[in-house]
Amino acid sequence: MSNYHIKHLEEYYQVYRKSIREPENFWEEIAGEHFLWRKKWDNVLSWDFKKPEVKWFEGAKLNITENCLDRHLATRGDKTAIIFEPNNPNEPAEHITYWQLYKRVNKFANVLKSQGIEKGDRVCIYLPMIPELAVAVLACARIGAIHSVVFAGFSSTALATRINDSNCKMVVTSDGSYRGAKTIDLKGIVDEALEQCDSVKTVLVAKRINSEISMKSGRDYWLQPLLDEASDEGKAEVMNAEDPLFILYTSGSTGKPKGMVHTTGGYMVYSAYTFKNAFQYRDGDVYWCTADIGWITGHSYIVYGPLANGATTVMFEGVPSYPDFGRFWEIIQKHKVTQFYTAPTAIRALAKHGAELIESFDLSSLKVLGSVGEPINEEAWHWYNDNVGKRKSPIVDTWWQTETGGIMITPIPYVTPTKPTYATLPFIGIQPALMDEKGEELKGNQVEGRLCIKFPWPGMARTIWGNHDRYRDTYFSAYEDKYFTGDGALRDEVGYYRITGRVDDVIIVSGHNLGTAPIEDAINEHPAVAESAIVGFPHDVKGNALYGYITLKDEGESRDQNNLRKEINHLISERIGPIAKLDKIQFTTGLPKTRSGKIMRRILRKIAEKNTDSLGDTSTLLNPDCVQEIIDNAL
Ligand code: 6R9
């Protein structure tokens, strides 16, 4: 019998040791005993971090939706799979059973097929958090099409870049979306994006806000009439374990977004096994992750992980602040949520509006609290623990990435003693390493360095879509035979890990990864801008906010600065999305540069943090004089 469900600390250590000593035996047992395969593997694992190439369960055949849907029908067909909680609290929640979800997925899958989508085709899904989003994802998986979900807060340019990068044949969207008191014209954004995308032949449009939109004949189709006509039965495509399941874009420190490719078998096993343990999910629990399915957290821990375990998962369309900051607590009370998984940025925003709002709600159903997306600061950790968990629900601070597919370092609730701001111990099967500046692994405890992973795990991304060299260069070239995460971390005296943050030019704003380069590219498009540099600075709600240093061309000097600021932020919104807007914009006559011409962001970061005492030696710069000017005019 495998250890699918870890129940106490001794068991964790024992299973962890087994997973490290005999990884293949370990994962073979987990995969063999808890999942449905059409054919089992010929080989559990083959890997080479130099190429890099990783294959799990090679030769196996399966369909992930048979694991998420079909196999539950006999035992829990009438159990709620998804609870849909709409943006408007007065609109009734929808409870979708496993049977209903199965039928809806089959219908959608049949529509995809009738529209010419075949195994291996890419389908871009640009939808708000409505049931159609989960259904569309599963429908793609059902027929072996590769889904590429793009977060519906991205701009038309960002959407177009992602559609073109993977040559999507179809876009699934809606007439619009609700976001608190606002509506967003999603279809309009898609139309704009598609002016730049030749690969898209079909657009399926779900009706959500009943707005007037234009439909391009021969390309755009309303979804519902097609679904109404489609059969609710259908066989799942038989996939190879290493066939791509989805592409999900994540920001790099430079260049265009990286389309991380996840494959079928390993991702399924890893997302499901981590879900079960990191949240201690038990039958009857109601689990709620507040992320959007447009991010990896939503893929693994709203859709695939929960459904593969036959769980009930809540999908929330709205925002924490609408109609007021009590909304989350109201939802927890209403659906008797047992596991609640959110981000530090949301916790800080909620804390700002006071714990009093919580008092009028009954949160006694809660058993586990989760945090993900960025380091959780001590204050937020305690606020969450005291006010939401009432000091009796352990907080799982789960560290992981789009690239890792699932949770990598986390406490297991009721198993691992927690410690504020610490993600604590590696998950089963995960072998972290901390590296020093010389590229040597730091052994022992009480060390701090760059976080790498030494051995493959089933959920890891296999490549970057269309650019395997970039995959190798980004993740496998910094340290020999190791996956480099881009994060720094420390290991304390008992071996607990604390993630200290990114060590590259990725800035995490409200839990969203933003690369500095694409933002600077957007700013530099402004005709008055000569050059720009973006850094992060601490923000009490967002974690980090963006500070832009911008030098203007001569003709820009005479322009009104506040107008320029507005125009620049508008440009960023258009090119990337509102999440990338700058909180502070300082115009300067120069940016500090090294002799080789590299902008010294380290100095700019310190100035933005108002930490100018430790700037270090600036005399070796190409243009040391500009530093004082920047300090004098800092915002
Ligand atoms: C799942 C997700 C990945 C980056 C990662 C790290 C940061 C995520 C964290 C955390 C500290 C945690 N991060 N969880 N930092 N503690 N519990 O967020 O994926 O959007 O790809 O971001 O987020 O810096 O490298 P993704």
Automatic annotation (TrEMBL):
Residues 12-68 form the Acetyl-coenzyme A synthetase N-terminal domain. One of its GO terms (molecular function) is ligase activity. Its EC number is 6.2.1.1. Residues 519-598 form the AMP-binding enzyme C-terminal domain. InterPro entries: Ac_CoA_lig, ACAS_N, AMP-bd_C, AMP-bd_C_sf, AMP-binding_CS, AMP-dep_synth/lig_dom, ANL_N_sf. Keywords: Acetylation, ATP-binding, Ligase, Nucleotide-binding. Residues 70-463 form the AMP-dependent synthetase/ligase domain. PROSITE patterns: AMP_BINDING. It is an enzyme of class 6 (ligase). Belongs to the ATP-dependent AMP-binding enzyme family. This is Acetate--CoA ligase. It comes from Corallibacter vietnamensis.
